[in-house]
């Protein structure tokens, strides 16, 4: 079986970094064609830098990293330094990258890659706000039918919100972009907070990362040591949720996840519920399903996979 070709669209973020590392540790299943950075957890200059830091940590300087959009489609950028720290990768001490950004804009890379490959062979994996993906779809509508699938981390139903009472961060940062993507007709799989809040880095799980005798294992353990302070205080949980690696884990082992094909709409006008993913989990409307919306995860299986693949690096 051929490795699945993907583009990772990301705003690193410690959990984004772990997702990228998981992809690099799984070459039999995943071929990373490139990484496009977007403004989100921290501004674009930092997310583009962080993506290159992670590539170098994994000894994958051959992976092109492109800078994408530096702000949402129609509103001011909201960032999350209160969670991820000033750099977005606070925790480990990692050297500045030596690899340069790839020439060109991340959106152009998405468009050109989809146009140059056969239809149905490229999966888009957004780990942050959907600005780059929506912009590509607006600029080049012809690529929409060429996308094999979009597998994204974002939204919530039972877990409601983590940046407002009703909205998850990635969707809230650019709800207009999310609306474009969710209405695009592309095959869509969503890993929401309902799943990711069950993927908690408990002490034994983080000890397993630290026990990996490599710079990757130590860096991941230190990232989650830093990252967890916010979520443990906010939610009273046993550890930090590893949101974004769920996207990559789904591509490798979809049987770790369960969900439903449902309709998901994005709230873009209400001041009270802006960015809410209105998920028709119970099928109470006549709106056509547009997303496979995950609801549960085999957390032990997820962490076993993650630890084994990080150890390969």
Question: Overview of this structure, please?
Answer:
The chain has 313 residues and is an alpha/beta fold. The protein has a single domain, classed as Ribonucleoside hydrolase-like (Inosine-uridine Nucleoside N-ribohydrolase, Chain A, Alpha-Beta Complex), CATH 3.90.245.10. It is 37% helix and 18% strand. It has twelve helices and twelve strands. The strands form three sheets. The chain has an eight-stranded mixed β-sheet, sandwiched between helices. Helix 1 runs antiparallel to helix 10, helix 5 packs across helix 7 and helix 9 runs antiparallel to helix 10. The longest helix has 21 residues.
Summarize the structure.
This protein is of the alpha/beta class and 313 residues long. 37% of the residues lie in helices and 18% in strands.
Give a topology summary.
Elements: E1 4-10, H1 14-24, E2 30-37, H2 44-57, E3 65-67, H3 81-84, H4 106-116, E4 122-126, H5 131-139, E5 147-153, H6 169-173, H7 175-182, E6 188-191, H8 193-196, E7 200-201, H9 203-210, H10 215-235, E8 240-241, H11 245-252, E9 257-262, E10 264-266, E11 277-279, E12 291-297, H12 299-311
Parallel strand pairs: 1-2, 1-4, 2-3, 4-5, 5-6, 6-12
Antiparallel strand pairs: 7-8, 9-12, 10-11
Number of domains: 1
Instruction: Identify the CATH homologous superfamily.
Output: Ribonucleoside hydrolase-like
Q: What form results from the Cα inertia axes?
A: globular
CATH architecture: Alpha-Beta Complex
Give descriptors for this structure.
313 residues; alpha/beta; Inosine-uridine Nucleoside N-ribohydrolase, Chain A; eight-stranded mixed sheet; two-stranded antiparallel sheet; 18% strand; globular
